[in-house]
Amino acid sequence: MFNLILFGPPGSGKGTQSEKLIEKFGWIHLSTGDLLRKEIANASQLGLEAKAFIDKGQLVPDEVVIGMIGSALDANPNAKGFLFDGFPRTEAQAEALDNLLAGKGSEISLVLALEVSEEELVARLLNRGLTSSRSDDRDENVIRKRLQEYHNKTAIVADYYAKFGKVAKIKGEGSIDDIFRLLVAKIEAKQPA
Ligand code: AMP
What we know:
Strand order of the largest sheet: 2-3-1-4-5
CATH topology: Rossmann fold
Number of domains: 1
CATH superfamily: P-loop containing nucleotide triphosphate hydrolases
Strand content: 5-15%
Bound molecules: adenosine monophosphate
Oligomer: single chain
Structural class: alpha/beta
């Protein structure tokens, strides 16, 4: 089983590249942002609680997203691999994910970290806000709060996995196809195609 974390700040292209990667490699795509938006669309209790955090640009509590990921792993016992997108976002989430995977005799294979300058991130997110249905992309204050949460709580997740020699950094600026090729090369170096 190949387990990839596609890591990076909001607006770094994780969602776009995840779609291309799962099409190529046939893994299950687990995006906690997408799972939370589904809960909100269904007006579930969990969705209602999560929306209050998302609308302020804050992270949703760890136990909520860890529970969702645990259920998704259990629901896909025969997966050939998972692509984690937007998770883990705190060190506690990273530790919980390691434990969940260890319980299935597996582990994180690789962390690919997309690097994009701050001004490019803000420009991309505001631009996405013009057309997307995501309310958290439309307000520059919320965007800046999300980036602050990333720096304060999420950036250290890369350090956590770097201790195990699992992180490769990728420049996330340029054409979508060029970035995709860089990601694929790193994956194939770990997992011969
Ligand atoms: P995303 O679609 O990944 O940008 O996530 C949108 C929002 O959902 C984030 O700004 C957080 O409020 C929340 N969220 C998504 N994934 C997580 C996570 N792993 N931990 C905490 N909050 C999350």
